[in-house]
Amino acid sequence: MFASAAPIRPMATCGTLEARVVGCEIQIIDTSNADALTVTQIAERLKGHAQSVTSVAFTPDGRTLASGSVDKTIMLWDVATGQPKGAQLKGHTQSVTSVAFTPDGRTLASGSGDSTIILWDVATGQPKAAPLKGHTQSVTSVAFTPDGRTLASGSGDSTIILWDVATGQPK
Questions:
Q1: What is this structure's pTM?
Q2: How far apart are CA 88 and CA 49, in angstroms?
Q3: Could you say which DSSP state residue 124 is in?
Q4: DSSP bridge partners of 64
Q5: Do the Cβ atoms of 74 and 88 come closer than 8 Å?
Q6: pLDDT digits (tens, 9 = 90+) for 131-146
Q7: How far apart are CA 72 and CA 55, in angstroms?
């Protein structure tokens, strides 16, 4: 374990893997040991964002971690090595507040303070289409259905929108 003045909180889990965020850094640990005092750190803290990390999510296979930040970027990380996978994903004009992968791990959704959602092709790091627009305030949460065909987004405007992932349109 490590000492820190900032609070450490779990942000994402995949099986026995857990990502914890402290400010601009992410720690990945293996919690398979039942003794919480002897968790195994998988990699050094992941460093790459210029400002606080606000959201993290694992691919379903646990091999990739996505992180969203106040610096308006998303990073994809190789969990085994702790190294970034490609360049930062850029497209939002305000903080990235939420990230989520489709069940097949091929698409990443990011919600932002700019009231938009971007669907990213994980293999290329490029947006799959124009940003999804429908909220009038910050998008605070994104989640896919188990079949990956619908994306739910929650917002500070007190609404939830269900999106058709194939068309990018509200259902």
A1: 0.85
A2: 9
A3: T
A4: 78
A5: yes
A6: 999 999 999 999 999 9
A7: 12
